[in-house]
């Protein structure tokens, strides 16, 4: 994470360049002129914000409960003071052997992170992230942290829409080809494809590329130490020269720290992802990106012709490398044409409907302010922390209800459920059950049962605990909906101009080429 030198002590001095100094007129956010999309129109995630005096163990539990890999930190004045990511937890806490229950996040966080305002152009925000080589960017509006931008969500959102459009025979391909024919000679397009899509991963893996390798018998601490030494966010588990699994910094956060397991006593074999999908050094950049998108993972092991692990690339690394390829071979004319194609393509892509299984509800349900403890406390409760948690169930009509409720009193939870479903059998109170990690149905009949249920949900990293409702009349039994996706709002991203635009449009057009080729 790129750092800045000094943070202003007043909210009025918060600036999008992240250094506490008011930006020059040329760096002020430009108005959204209809053709240029701002950050507030991009696919944002609700920011998890906690005091920087919080212990690392508590921060990990909260991150797991929200299923996020970054948390924003505030100081005693409720001002943004830092950011803590899964990689920080792995390399600054686990690798160093610090005790999470005794270490505050202020000791291991990245201080004074770069941030942007909600009126910043999306292209500028994404450029900051790619140039700084970090995935997360806080978004501030009127001195308040309102969201966090994750570059991978922007990328995957676009790819998902283009993929759906291609499968449905949408006019998006024709639109892209139309721009291609009108704006760029065939020689130009051929050159772009040659430089961007045909190159294999071997072209972006330098001689100094290193991969953290561990064995199944190594502890998580040992794996984290190797990740720290090589400055990577994942380790490949190898047995007899064959890849058996992968352990990422997010795995360490969610499967070890959030569950209060000892990194020294926990073997990587117990928490790794076994038999990960791998790419070869001959896999094209586009195919690698497509593999990661389809598999919904962020890290991809790369093997040579003998099956030996030679690297483990991530989305940001591939994107940065792709841009470098364009940057090293592009001319001003290429940038101008690429910018035109890019603008047309992304406007069309984000006008499409998302895939059916794509999240459509926004994670941003309200502004998360940094003003005062009361607001912060309310934020924790609404997010399912403190003495409350999020529950959901399906009623007799098939409608799914999602709500927050206190986690201390079982009667309060039952009352909240009855309030949602209305009168049933003259006010009969349902018996509440939930399914544990072994597939057993557990009854919530006491306050202790409720506390245990919530504890399980948090340790498992669940956003909401699904309930079964059972009445005396078995025909009234209600089971939870199997759809576990948290729906997010369909948003729009538009990138434009310059070398960055050229790289992204190349990726976009390449996806279409790939999909067309796959159909043939």
TrEMBL record:
Residues 1-12 have a biased composition (Basic residues). The keyword Transmembrane applies. The keyword Membrane applies. Residues 386-472 form the PB1 domain. Pfam families: CBS, PB1. The chain crosses the membrane at residues 497-515. Residues 43-102, 109-166, 207-265, 272-328 form the CBS domain. InterPro entries: CBS_dom, CBS_dom_sf, CBS_domain-containing, PB1-like, PB1_dom. Residues 1-39 are annotated as: Disordered. Homodimers and heterodimers. This is CBS domain-containing protein CBSCBSPB3-like. It comes from Cicer arietinum (Chickpea).
């Amino acid at each position: 994470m790129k750092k800045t030198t000094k943070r202003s002590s007043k909210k009025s001095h918060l600036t999008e360049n992240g250094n506490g100094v008011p930006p020059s007129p040329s760096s002020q956010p430009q108005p959204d002129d209809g053709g240029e999309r701002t950050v507030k129109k991009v696919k944002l995630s609700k920011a998890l914000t906690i005091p920087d005096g919080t212990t690392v163990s508590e921060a990990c539990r909260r991150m797991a409960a929200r299923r996020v890999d970054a948390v924003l930190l505030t100081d005693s004045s409720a001002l943004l003071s830092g950011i803590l990511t899964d990689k920080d937890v792995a390399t600054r806490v686990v690798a160093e052997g610090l005790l999470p229950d005794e270490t505050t996040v202020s000791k291991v966080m990245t201080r004074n992170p770069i941030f942007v305002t909600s009126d910043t152009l999306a292209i500028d925000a994404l450029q900051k992230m790619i140039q700084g080589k970090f995935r997360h960017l806080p978004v501030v509006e009127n001195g308040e942290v309102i969201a966090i931008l994750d570059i991978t969500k922007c990328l995957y959102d676009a790819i998902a829409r283009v993929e759906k459009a291609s499968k449905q025979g949408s006019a998006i391909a024709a639109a892209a080809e139309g721009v291609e024919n009108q704006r760029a000679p065939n020689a130009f397009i051929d050159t772009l494809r040659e430089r961007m899509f045909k190159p294999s991963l071997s072209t972006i893996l330098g001689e100094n590329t290193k991969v953290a390798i561990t064995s199944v018998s190594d502890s998580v601490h040992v794996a984290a130490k190797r990740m720290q030494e090589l400055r990577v966010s994942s380790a490949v588990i190898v047995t007899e020269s064959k890849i058996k699994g992968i352990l990422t910094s997010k795995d360490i956060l969610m499967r070890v720290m959030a569950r209060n397991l000892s990194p020294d006593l926990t073997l990587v074999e117990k928490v790794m992802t076994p038999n990960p999908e791998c790419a070869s050094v001959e896999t094209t950049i586009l195919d690698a990106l497509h593999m990661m998108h389809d598999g919904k993972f962020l890290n991809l092991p790369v093997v040579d012709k003998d099956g030996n692990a030679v690297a483990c690339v991530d989305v940001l690394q591939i994107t940065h490398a792709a841009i470098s390829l364009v940057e090293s071979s592009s001319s001003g004319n290429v940038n101008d044409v690429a910018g035109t194609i890019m603008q047309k393509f992304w406007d069309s892509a984000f006008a499409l409907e998302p895939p059916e299984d794509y999240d459509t509800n926004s994670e941003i349900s309200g502004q998360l302010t940094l003003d005062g403890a009361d607001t912060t406390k309310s934020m924790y409760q609404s997010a399912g922390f403190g003495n409350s948690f999020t529950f959901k169930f399906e009623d007799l009509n098939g409608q799914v209800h999602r709500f927050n409720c206190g986690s201390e009193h079982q009667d309060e939870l039952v009352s909240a459920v009855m309030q949602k479903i209305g009168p049933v059998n003259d006010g009969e109170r349902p018996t509440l059950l939930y399914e544990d990690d072994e597939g057993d149905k557990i009854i919530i009949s006491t306050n202790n049962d409720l506390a245990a249920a919530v504890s399980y949900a948090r340790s498992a990293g669940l956003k909401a605990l699904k309930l079964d409702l059972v009445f005396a009349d078995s025909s009234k039994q209600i089971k939870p909906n199997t759809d576990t996706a948290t729906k997010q709002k369909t948003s729009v991203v538009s990138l434009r101009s310059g070398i960055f635009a050229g790289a992204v449009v190349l990726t976009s057009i390449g996806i279409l080429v790939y999909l067309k080729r796959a159909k043939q």
